[in-house]
Design a protein that fits this description.
Helices cover about 5% and strands about 45% of the residues. The chain contains 1 helix and 15 strands; from the N terminus they run βββββαββββββββββ. The relative contact order is 0.20.
């Protein structure tokens, strides 16, 4: 008799906890060649080499670390089953396979936000490249005043405000971007808080799926 092959159970998407993202510009990226795989160290006691075969600690559902050599941008995204882990992160270090450090950050502040990034799309024509950014404030009683807005490490917009339960779509001209490239958004609010987002460019008609966070894995 032939033995029946057991079907592998698909890992359930996490339905508790949440997603954290850290974005920054790599040190000396214009003069240094950084080589993957990258290693992310959290507080010095959790160290993860970003490869497909890495066995993750139980405190992390998934984690990615992307780097764009053209812009120097680094994006670390992770999903954790317990928000306490995120709140406890006091130091983050990202290094490459040669031990070269892309960045070290201390006293990180992670806050819950009513700001959602629903869509980032890249459109390329013969004349120009343009990126569409769709932001949504789902809070019913809070205005978000954006005092600075950076796309791929470059100042991209003047001050603007998003009202309660309001959407805003911004268009930015960019250059030298390709599908699959890492993009980053970094914005500061009037109250001094800062937010970062990261993902990879896809076809303009295929948005990066942020809207369901943190219900499913949303792993890029």
């Amino acid at each position: 008799k032939k033995k029946k092959k057991k079907k592998k159970k698909k890992k359930k998407d996490p339905d508790v906890g949440g997603r954290a993202q850290i974005v920054f510009t790599a040190s000396n990226y214009k003069t240094t060649t950084y080589v993957s795989p990258f290693t992310v160290s959290l507080n010095g006691d959790i160290t993860v080499v970003i490869t497909a075969t890495t066995v993750l600690p139980s405190s992390i559902d998934w984690i990615t670390c992307d780097y764009n050599a053209k812009t120097g941008q680094v994006g670390v995204s992770m999903h954790v089953p317990d928000d306490d882990l995120v709140q406890a992160i006091s130091k983050l270090v990202v290094s490459d396979s040669k031990g070269q450090v892309l960045g070290t950050y201390r006293n990180l502040a992670f806050v819950h936000s009513g700001m959602e990034l629903l869509y980032v799309g890249l459109e390329t024509t013969q004349q120009q490249q343009q990126v569409t950014v769709h932001l949504y404030n789902y809070y019913s009683n809070a205005f978000y005043g954006i005092s600075s807005f950076y796309f791929n490490g470059q100042s991209a917009d003047k001050e603007f405000t998003i009202g309660p339960v309001d959407h805003i779509v911004r268009l930015y001209n960019i250059s030298n971007a390709s599908p699959g490239d890492l993009w980053t958004i970094y914005m500061t609010l009037d109250d001094g808080l800062a937010y970062g987002f990261a993902g990879r460019f896809s076809n303009a008609l295929q948005p990066f799926p942020f809207a369901a966070l943190p219900v499913d894995s949303q792993c890029p």
